[in-house]
Amino acid sequence: MNAAVIRPAAQNRDDAPAAGSPETSHIEAAIAELKVLLGDRVSTVAAVRERHGQDESWHPPHPPHAVVFAGSTDEVSRIAKICTRHSAPMIPFGAGTSLEGNIAALHGGVCIDLGGMNRVIEVNTQDMDVRVEAGVTRKQLNAHVKDSGLFFPVDPGADATIGGMAATRASGTTTVRYGTMRDNVLGLTVILADGNVVRVGTRARKSAAGFDLTRLLIGSEGTLGIITEVQLRLYSIPEAITAAICSFPTLENAVAAVIQTIHMGIPVARIELLDALEMRAVNLFSRLDYPERPTLFFEFHGSPAGAAEQAETVGEIVRDQGVANFQWAIRPEDRNRLWEARHNALYAARALRAGAKVMITDVCVPISALARCILDTRTDIDASRLVAPIVGHVGDGNFHVLIVVMPDDTDEIGRAMALNDRLVARALAAGGTCTGEHGVGYGKIDYLQQEQGEAIALMRAIKQALDPHGLMNPGKVFRSGTQLL
Ligand SMILES: Cc1cc2nc3c(=O)[nH]c(=O)nc-3n(C[C@H](O)[C@H](O)[C@H](O)COP(=O)(O)OP(=O)(O)OC[C@H]3O[C@@H](n4cnc5c(N)ncnc54)[C@H](O)[C@@H]3O)c2cc1C
Are 269 and 290 in contact (CB under 8 A)? Predict the structure, then answer.
């Protein structure tokens, strides 16, 4: 990607046709028909449209022409049929917490909000699986299954919907132990562009039955279909859970401790890195007084003896890297405070500068390349004269540079984009990826091209087969020759 100061015009909504213009009459016709179907669950109110065109990132808002609030799989099917008949773009929406412009209505159209589809349909305690509607959030799901002694581990920090998490192939702090959405979704109910309802996957833990369409749809970011139901794996709540933080003399020591922990196969449930600047941000934001040095947040799950043994072994590792002590959080309320501080890392970084936005990077590299990649990036940040803390799910080799930029400072934004370009190049050279978890949206289209090269043609062919008119979340993941993309 060129380090241009603003996004290319083709990616901005400014050049999308305005409501009421002849070019949008087909969309207006779709909205009129949707109103007959859904009544006041169709909104064209500016505030509602704006809320649905703006994610949590630095990308500018791109509101849709209308937002519809879906109530069932059957209703989503009818909505898709109407939109397709009128060639209106469809943008599925969960909680809007994504970070790469994933929900931006780049070509206008109809945003389909699935947040109201939030029923937990069935919990199979013995098989440890659950079927939910797409709008159930991860916190809602965990509150629902807690009394069965079960939990759903994938934790992207934000209280995202299960449908949105499947659509972005989300992961998070617990992925080092429990995997990503790819590993935890067993099956899906999906509405295709033509409104057909398709069920993919089963409740079986494994299957060799034909193409793995479940995994094709996971991470497709609403460009291939609209997920209305998700079958998920659940896990037993561990008997013992302990969390701890420890601060290191240098970033190098902290990363070395991570790598050794992973190499020794210690089944840590969470191992998160925050550099010195992020610790300062967290202290200021959450009114804490942690040492402002490179820090690892840990969590250990198991039997009381198992969790203690893991903690002891990790204790030896960190001692070798110059750490005197763990600071323990054993009581649930202390653990919650610790993880809330971690989950607020993005907002804490943003609060470092009043009026700022955060350009968030998301590379993931093989663990052997992690130390070099993080240390070279820290040097690069300093040379770029940017305020940019580093946080990461480092046990997976995934880390984020939170580049805190003033939206009106074009020079600074140019330097930030150039830093991101170099970071992605560094990750790709090490055999890594431009996005470990946030997805491509439209913010990383050029990086995906660099990473996947000719494989993009295969993705285009799949897109063409499932969405021949290019109506499903157009302008995302890659550019294509079809009508809207
Ligand atoms: C503070 C913060 C921390 C975060 N940390 C992480 C992290 O650690 N790991 C991580 O993976 N992400 C993280 N994210 C990003 C975000 O939470 C995830 O991308 C999440 O999966 C988005 O879910 P959502 O429900 O908000 O989806 P939305 O933002 O509403 O949508 C995301 C994409 O999925 C599509 N979509 C939504 N619902 C459906 C559906 N039912 N069917 C088909 N397509 C659909 C949308 O069209 C869009 O392309 C973080 C975000 C914030 C704000």
Answer: no
Residue type, 75: E
How far is the centre of ligand 1, averaged over its atoms, from the C-alpha of 327 (Å)?
32
Beta bridge partners of 399: 392
- Ligand 1, residues 62, 76, 93, 232: which to mutate, most atoms within 8 A of Cβ? 93
* pTM summary value: 0.94
Buried b (16+ CB within 10 A) or exposed e, 470-479: bbbbbbbbbb
Which pLDDT value is given to residue 11? Answer: 37
Residue matched to tokens 């799989």:
73
Please name which of 199, 170, 168, 189 lies closest in space to residue 117, comparing C-alpha atoms: 189
Q: Using a 6 Å CB cutoff, which residues line ligand 1?
A: 55-56, 91-99, 102-103, 114, 134, 156-158, 160-161, 163-165, 167-168, 170-172, 221-222, 226-227, 346, 437-438, 473
Q: Which ligand 1 atom is the nearest neighbour of the CA of 476?
A: 49
CA atoms of 156 and 151, how far apart (whole Å): 15
Segment 70-125, tens digit of pLDDT? 999 999 999 999 999 999 999 999 999 999 999 999 999 999 999 999 999 999 99
Q: Specify the residue with its C-alpha closest to ligand 1, atom 19.
A: 98
Burial class, 157, CB count within 10 angstroms (exposed 0-12 / middle 13-18 / buried 19+): middle
Residue nearest to atom 52 of ligand 1 (CA): 158
Q: What is the mean pLDDT of residues 282-301?
A: 96
